[in-house]
Design a protein that fits this description.
globular, 33% helix, four-stranded mixed sheet, five-stranded mixed sheet, 230 residues
Length: 230
């Protein structure tokens, strides 16, 4: 994870992340469980996605010599793309058979899968829809004390799938900067514009980490999509 901290820093300044050296575009599939009834809460689903993405990276199998070491390390060395897809019913059960980590309770679950080439994903994954991840806003209340907190940018609109990818970036960067060796439960919250502006001042001071998006989907390049503190 040290290479992640070296490459992305705290997000205080925009960094040019070079394309993958071998020309292969890789991504981590993040599968969001979104049943028709009952639907998960947006907040709980994003919190599960944040922890799941980091859990794959810190899993013992992803450490030196482990069976996940090479694919995770190769992905982290480049651009940490994530592609969120939704699944329900038997499709959700099917993705449990693929290498990855599932986090969450009830229907608010996310499974982060082993990253790999975007043009060579298993059919179990490719058949899942990328769109259709919108959920109603909820009111989760104050974040639990002691949890790392990820705050979403109130100036930009993001689908739940896009937001899930961003909080997954945030959890990884925060863990890399802090030197964590296990994945905690995260709190994810929306905020007001005034509070967000104050958070950006903390980003400039280097006391919190920020995710600056590459701008491939939904937001402009360089947009700070979320801020995390732990």
């Amino acid at each position: 994870m040290s290479v992640l901290a070296d490459g992305y820093g705290t997000g205080r300044v925009a960094r040019e992340i070079p394309p993958e050296a071998d020309g292969v575009v890789r991504a981590m599939p993040v599968i969001l469980r979104i049943e028709r009834d009952p639907q998960p809460s947006r907040t709980a689903l994003l919190e599960a996605a944040a922890t799941a993405a980091l859990a794959v990276c810190l899993d013992p199998r992803a450490q030196a010599g482990g069976e996940w070491d090479e694919p995770v390390r190769t992905w982290v060395d480049g651009r940490i793309r994530k592609i969120a897809r939704r699944a329900r019913g038997s499709h959700w059960e099917a993705v449990q058979e693929l290498p990855g980590v599932t986090v969450g309770e009830g229907t608010a679950q996310a499974r982060a899968l082993l990253p790999g080439p975007v043009d060579d994903v298993p059919k179990t994954v490719s058949r899942l829809q990328i769109g259709g991840t919108d959920l109603e806003d909820d009111a989760p209340g104050p974040p639990p004390e002691g949890r790392p907190l990820i705050v979403l940018n109130p100036y930009v609109e993001m689908s739940v799938g896009k937001a899930a990818a961003q909080v997954g970036h945030a959890s990884m960067i925060l863990a890399a900067v802090r030197g964590w060796t296990s994945a905690p439960a995260f709190a994810v919250r929306d905020t007001t514009r005034a509070e967000w502006d104050a958070l950006l001042a903390e980003v400039e001071a280097g006391t919190v980490v920020a995710v600056r998006d590459a701008g491939f989907t939904e937001v402009d390049p360089g947009t700070v999509t979320c801020v995390a503190r732990g």
